[in-house]
Amino acid sequence: MEGIFRDEIEMLQVDKFFCDEMGRQIHRYIKAMHGSLAMLEKVAAKMKTLEVPQRERAHALYIDLNRKVIQGLDWRMLIARALANYCDNYTYFCQTVVDEDTMNFYVDRMKAKYIRFHEVFEVEGKFGIKDFEGKLILSPHYDFLRTSYVYVDDLRTMPIIAEKDGKMGLVLPDGKDTVVVPFEYDDISLRDEEPWFELTKEDQVTLWPTE
Question: What is the pTM of this model?
Fold first, then answer.
């Protein structure tokens, strides 16, 4: 069809409405996984304070750790909903959603924004992590790594459970290998509520972070 074109205003508006749709998708996923009402309310309250690019990044970080959120996701359906909010009449909406170039453009655009998966890699038997752009965020110095599959309301960077020289610790994927819990524990497990981590040392259990 002739006459359909994409400009900056349209793209920014579709980005905004699609971000809202992705937020609802994540909300439904958390609810289906029996996330607490308190957690959902904290997430919603925090998201209201963020601009669209920040919310896009927050959603991408969550999807990276909980990839089932987008398993079987109908990207075109979410784009159609976003376009419905943008279009000012039904005829233009119908013309837009059947335009393959437009739909393909937005599918590629949204996937680039929200599919940003980290990668665990191995060097000589040691493991590290790269982000979706291939940037090193955790050096390959560890015998074992486990990312934290939780959603934190303040969107802070969650530490990664790691093993070194037979002991467990917590380290941030910040490109600096910042240790937040020293490598002196026999086991570290992830909890489904705060405090997020259970630390075990010589049969003594403590929780982290503490107040």
Answer: 0.80
